[in-house]
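W.,

You were right to be curious about this one. When I first looked at the sequence I had no strong expectations either way, so I just let the prediction run and decided to look at it fresh. Below is the sequence, 174 residues in total, followed by the output.
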Amino acid sequence: MKKLVGLFVVLMLSIAALLFLEGFRFNATASMPKGIYQLVVGTASFQHGDLVSLCVDVEPFATLARDRDYLRPGSCPDGLQPLLKVVAGLPGDILEIGPDGIRINGRLQPGTRIAVADSHARPMPESLLAAGTIPEGMALVLSGEHPGSFDGRYFGLVPLASLKRVRPIRIFTP
């Protein structure tokens, strides 16, 4: 029986590794719909609303994500899991930041107020996001689902080159 269980575990780990190598990712966080997503290969340009995966390498937010367990272990160079977000702002877009949230080209993005503390009442570092025009080569990524999400409202703009487009394969609704 032990051998059978061991064989089953090895088989499941092998299947998981193969799916990972094929670009499949599972999202279990509240910041985007829970489900299975797949990396899309060979896409050069991004549009507003595209779903993307990215690694957070902006300090102090990468360390904060690790220390506060915002992100689980994963495939990013720092050993954390990639984020799954929506492209909200692109080069040339105008950002405004106010008490009601972030506006892009005058349009309020729902659920984007910048919090001073996380859900455990721990203070957040000052946001790196600044009002103004998004420069060439940069993007703003936000969560479309969760007002307490760890996203660009805190770590600021990210290089477009760091984004990988994803597509939902199977979304699990409650």
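Here's what jumped out at me. The chain has a mean pLDDT of 87. And, maybe more interesting for your project: The CA atoms of residues 80 and 108 lie 31 Å apart.

Coffee later to discuss?

I.
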